[in-house]
Amino acid sequence: MRIITENILRFLLLVIVQVLFLNNLQFTFCTPYIYILFILSLPVSCPRWLDLIAGFVLGLTIDMFSNTLGLHTFACVLIAYLRYFAIKLFVSEENRITNIPSFHSFGVMPYIKYVVLLTVIHHTALLALETMTFVNWWITLLRIVISSAVSIAIIIALQFLKRN
User: Fold this and answer.
1) Per-residue pLDDT tens digits for 61-109
2) Distance between CA atoms of 58 and 4, rounded to whole angstroms?
3) pTM for the whole thing?
4) Over 96-149, what HEC string results?
5) What is the gyration radius of the CA atoms in the chain, in angstroms?
6) Which of 54, 59, 60, 62 is nearest to 22 (CA)?
7) How many angstroms separate the CA atoms of 129 and 72, rounded?
8) Number of other residues whose CB lies within 10 A of the CB of residue 43
9) What's the DSSP call for residue 69?
10) Which residues 6+ apart lie within 8 Å of 33 measured at CB?
């Protein structure tokens, strides 16, 4: 019951921060999307079908507030689906037994690799679908790189704060 309450609070907090604060920042090439921390922090033992539903609900919620017609939903469901494979790829068998992905449970480097991979995939899917053109593709690539780097830095900083 405690894990369900924590995840509901995490969901609400990340959606509020994303919608009210981060989506309103006026940077040319950068919008940090830290709401994906909700998907990244789901328990390892969470069934895959529940990962997909959580990704769908999170993406749909952000889409409703951002008026983006399914872009966030697609990107969230994609990383919710790939999360299992990323954990298997980067995290050793004995560390996968732990419940919540973090520096402490996965180790620092495996957790960073996990966050980087899924964040870059999310941002690539989201921003490529948002642009839907190969005209000025370098601008889209620059937006993906900068937004991913800033999002990753914030997510890792939040993990350090949580750890301390």
Assistant:
1) 999 999 999 999 999 999 999 999 999 999 888 777 777 898 888 989 9
2) 15
3) 0.94
4) CCCCCCCHHHHCHHHHHHHHHHHHHHHHHHHHHHHHCCCCCHHHHHHHHHHHHH
5) 15
6) 62
7) 10
8) 16
9) T
10) 18, 22, 122, 123, 126, 147, 151
Neighbours of 133 (CB within 10 A): 8
Amino acid in position 53: I
Other CB atoms within a 10 A radius of the CB of residue 81 amount to 13
Query: pLDDT tens digits, residue range 2-26?
Result: 888 999 999 999 999 999 999 888 7
- Boundaries of domain holding 159: 2-163
What distance in Å separates the CA atoms of residue 146 and residue 108, rounded to the nearest whole number? Answer: 22
119 Cβ contact partners less than 8 Å away, ≥ 6 residues apart: 36, 148, 151, 152, 155
| Total domains in the fold of the chain | 1
